[in-house]
Each structure stands twice: as structure tokens, then as C-alpha cells.
Design goal:
This protein is of the alpha/beta class and 481 residues long. The chain folds into three domains: 245 residues, Amidase signature (AS) domain (Amidase signature (AS) enzymes, Alpha-Beta Complex); 137 residues, Amidase signature (AS) enzymes (Alpha-Beta Complex), CATH 3.90.1300; 65 residues, no CATH class. Helices cover 39% and strands 12% of the residues. α9 links the parallel β7 and β8. α7 runs antiparallel to α16 and α10 crosses α12. The two termini are 27 Å apart.
Length: 481
């Protein structure tokens, strides 16, 4: 590899097979980068060199024996700190789990290591994945490597920043309402949200169980496809995991997009969309048309209700899921005079302000007298939004929108205005509620040099199509529009 050339999955494999570098040397190279830059970025919370070097040594032994290497052999990767890693601290960026060390690996982590990946460590995130800026971590915010005064997006900001800064070749994040796609957009890299049920959630610390998904970040679409190929597929440990065959995602990226119908919903280009973002995304759509896609105008009438529905459903599920952090079974425990006092003090000290806010919102929405008025109504709206997508996919093969209405904003800019922070998710939560797959792919930069993301949605379990479109866009120069 020449100086300054980023490592990709294919180049790692080629270098190992040609014995130009060993997996141990490559892991050491990435740890050197982390030690140099992580104090500035705060992308990693915990490093796992013992585990990483042990895996690297296994790969080097396989190379020495002349064995066929697994698909991710020697690839240095990072894991968002809400995904369980056996023997490696998993904090969810919360004081509540500051010293928690899981006794088992998440299925996605197991599959990565089985495929030869070298897991460097755990990345920072918004506490319990609740946030859109990565400023809600109990261990400090992550800085965007593109512009250090800006947020990297949330909640998977540490994973996105690590990949964008060259501190990992690829990374896993999680997406509940935009937590992979928005950081991908803000950091200028592809971020892929699979269909709900495509990737096992076993070992993922739950935020909102009907919305949470694990997916990859990479510097390019082909690498995201390679990682998804490894982690996708049915898992008997997860009852929501879908028994749907996994296609050849890498092969899908090479297909022509000529003739594909791309829907452009007017509802995503209205008030609140930054003019520079709008201009870049419209240029991106024009590029897809040049590649042979056919533009189809769409109406998705229930888009305006998505934020309200999402923040009722997600907070209600969070309220239920986070009830387990009571100081009794695991995690932080603050002694109190009575059991109730112990509960109160543990949760008061263990949870940060945003998590407390969402627990209170969710508890209120589920309480007697309000359940029908809020939670059930939100679920009805969710069904209408899902119907909007189903109706659209009768007319088009994919839907193309901005990822975020704004470029990455400054650290602290929205910290005191939760509503403005929530509204930044307006274009991502719709696909989350519908359960469809989506990707954010780089779509040029603003005049200030800030990344813009173009978002693509496709029907359930059609990740191959979303990768096909994103790859064609990337190869045609979409990132430099």
C-alpha cells in the first residue's frame, strides 16, 4: 500500500496473501493510528489488543499454511459499544454499565470473527444509542474528523468517526431512527441500515426492540456489502431474525442501474431543508438519471407525522427495556435505605439527561389513560407510513431523498433544544418505522467543506438493490458532486 492510500477489504486480503504485510503488523498499524488520534476524536471507549492480536496471529498462521482465507481475514474493525463482546467492556456509553463485561458475544460479532475480522475495540456512542449527535455519551462527545468543531452524528458517531478517520477499515453501528445513516452522512462515508430482521439482534443491548438494527460503516459501498454478507442471515437465538436467503451482495453491486425507477418524494424537499443540501441531493438524483435511472415523482402523505410517531414508539419501548437497570441484577448499584430508595438513586446517578427524558416520555405514553391516546395512535400512524412505502414500491424500485435536512452542526449547537435535535431525524425515521433497508452515501460537500448524504430506500430484504444503486452512484463520482 502506498502512503496515504486507505486500506480496503480487498487490499487487506491481497496484501496478506502476497505476504506484503502480516495481520499482526496491520493490527499494530491501526493501533498506532488510534493512539495518535483517539484523544482528539474520542471515537473509541475501550480497546481490545489482546483479542485483536490473538485473532491476527490465527490469520497469519492460516496464511503460513497456505489456507484459503475467510472473507474478512485480517480486516481491522470497530464495534459500537452497545453490542456485546465477551470479555471486553460494553458500557453503552453509560455510567450505568461502566464496569459491565459481557459473558458472551453478539451473533454479529461471532460472525465477524469467524470471517477473520480483527476487532480493535468498542466505539463511543450516545448513551444507550439515544441521540443524534453523539454528545449524550457519559464519556464525552465524539468529534467529527472532517471538522473537529462539528458533531459526527448519532448515535453511532464513534463508529462513523473511526472509519472516516482511518482508525478502522469498517465498523458496526446500530440504527433505530437514523443512527447509522445520519453519522454516515455527517462523516462522509457510506452507512447501511438493513431490513429489520436481516441481521440478528442477539447480543445487542436493546433501546427500541421493534426498531433496532445492526449494520455496517465502511469507506466504500463494496466493503459495506462485504460486511453485510457476513453478518446477515437467520439466527435461532433471535426470534425476530428472518429466515430469508442472503444473496451475493458483492455481486449485486456490480449490476447496472439502467432502467431502475427511482422515486423522489416531494415531501422530503420542503421547508426546513438546507439549500446547499437540497442542491447537492438534486444533483445526485440528476447523476442517477444520467446513469439510466428513471425519475418518478412521489407523494408520501404521512411523512409529516413520522417524528411524532417515532418518538412515542421509541421512547415507550425504551422505558420498558431500560426498566431492567434497577441496581439489582447487574450494572451500577447505589446503596439506599430502602429498596425504592436504592432504585431511585441508582437510576438517578446511572442515567444521563437524555436517557431520563426518553424514559419519562415513554412511561407517560404507556401510562393508564394515555396509552390509547398516544402509543396506540402512534402505532396506527406507523402503519400508515409503512403503507406509504408499500404503495410507493408498487411504482418504483427505490426511493431517493436527503439523509439529513442539514449538514453536520457544531458541538453544543442543539444541546439545549431537544426538539430541534429530534427534527434532524425527519428523513431517516420514516424508513425505520416502515422496517425497510436504507443507505446513506456521500453526495458532495457544502461550500464550507461539510459532507452531504444521499439516502436510498428499497423494499424489504432488497439490500442488494440499495447497494447496487449506491455503488453505481459512488463509482460515477457522486461523492464529489
Amino acid at each position: 500500500m502506498s502512503a496515504g492510500t486507505p486500506w480496503r477489504i480487498a487490499s487487506v486480503r491481497a496484501a496478506l496473501q502476497a505476504k506484503q504485510i502480516s495481520a499482526r503488523e496491520l493490527a499494530a498499524e491501526f493501533y498506532g493510528r488510534i493512539y495518535k488520534r483517539n484523544a482528539e476524536l474520542n471515537a473509541y471507549l475501550t480497546l481490545s489488543p489482546e483479542r485483536a492480536y490473538a485473532q491476527a496471529d490465527r490469520i497469519d498462521a492460516a496464511v503460513a499454511r497456505g489456507e484459503t482465507l475467510p472473507p474478512l481475514a485480517g480486516v481491522p474493525m470497530a464495534i459500537k459499544d452497545v453490542i456485546s463482546t465477551r470479555g471486553v467492556r460494553t458500557t453503552c456509553a453509560s455510567k450505568m454499565l461502566e464496569d459491565y463485561i459481557p459473558p458472551y458475544d453478539a451473533t454479529a460479532v461471532e460472525r465477524l470473527e469467524r470471517a477473520g475480522a480483527v476487532l480493535l475495540g468498542k466505539t463511543n456512542c450516545d448513551e444507550f444509542a439515544m441521540g443524534g449527535s453523539n454528545e449524550n455519551s457519559a464519556y464525552g462527545p465524539v468529534r467529527n474528523p472532517v471538522a473537529l468543531d462539528r458533531v459526527p452524528g448519532g448515535s453511532s458517531g464513534g463508529s462513523a468517526a473511526a472509519v472516516a478517520a482511518g482508525l478502522a477499515v469498517a465498523a458496526l453501528g446500530t440504527d433505530t431512527g437514523g443512527s447509522i445513516r445520519q453519522p454516515g452522512s455527517f462523516c462522509g462515508i457510506p452507512g447501511l441500515m438493513p431490513t429489520y430482521g436481516r441481521v440478528s439482534r442477539y447480543g445487542l443491548v436493546a433501546f427500541a426492540s421493534s426498531l433496532d438494527k445492526i449494520g455496517p460503516f465502511a469507506t466504500n459501498v463494496a466493503d459495506a456489502a462485504a460486511v453485510l454478507s457476513v453478518i446477515a442471515g437467520h439466527d435461532e437465538n433471535d426470534s425476530t431474525s428472518a429466515a430469508v436467503p442472503v444473496p451475493d451482495y458483492i455481486g449485486e453491486t456490480e449490476k447496472s442501474v439502467k432502467g431502475l425507477r427511482i422515486g423522489v418524494p416531494e415531501d422530503y424537499f420542503g421547508a426546513g431543508l438546507d439549500p446547499e443540501v437540497k442542491e447537492k441531493v438534486q444533483s445526485g438524483i440528476a447523476l442517477l438519471e444520467k446513469l439510466g435511472c428513471r425519475r418518478v415523482p412521489l407523494q408520501m402523505p404521512h411523512t409529516d407525522y413520522a417524528i411524532a410517531a417515532y418518538y412515542i414508539i421509541a421512547t415507550a419501548e425504551a422505558s420498558s427495556n431500560l426498566a431492567r437497570y434497577d441496581g439489582v441484577r447487574y450494572g451500577l448499584r447505589v446503596p439506599g435505605g430502602t429498596l425504592t430508595e436504592m432504585y431511585r438513586q441508582t437510576r438517578e446517578r446511572g442515567f444521563g439527561p437524555e436517557v431520563k427524558r426518553r424514559i419519562m416520555l415513554g412511561t407517560y405514553a404507556l401510562s393508564a389513560g394515555y396509552y390509547d391516546a398516544y402509543y396506540l395512535r402512534a402505532q396506527s400512524v406507523r402503519a400508515l407510513i409503512a403503507r406509504d412505502f408499500a404503495d410507493a414500491f408498487q411504482k418504483v424500485d427505490a426511493i431517493v431523498t436527503p439523509t439529513s435536512p442539514i449538514p453536520p452542526f457544531r458541538l453544543g449547537e442543539k444541546a439545549l433544544d431537544p426538539l430541534q435535535m429530534y427534527l434532524a431525524d425527519i428523513y431517516t425515521v420514516t424508513g425505520s418505522l416502515a422496517g425497510v433497508p436504507g443507505i446513506s452515501v456521500p453526495c458532495g460537500k457544502t461550500k464550507a467543506g461539510l459532507p452531504v448524504g444521499l439516502q436510498v430506500f428499497v423494499p424489504h430484504f432488497k439490500e442488494g438493490c440499495v447497494l447496487q444503486i449506491a455503488h453505481a452512484f459512488e463509482q460515477a463520482g457522486g461523492s464529489t458532486i
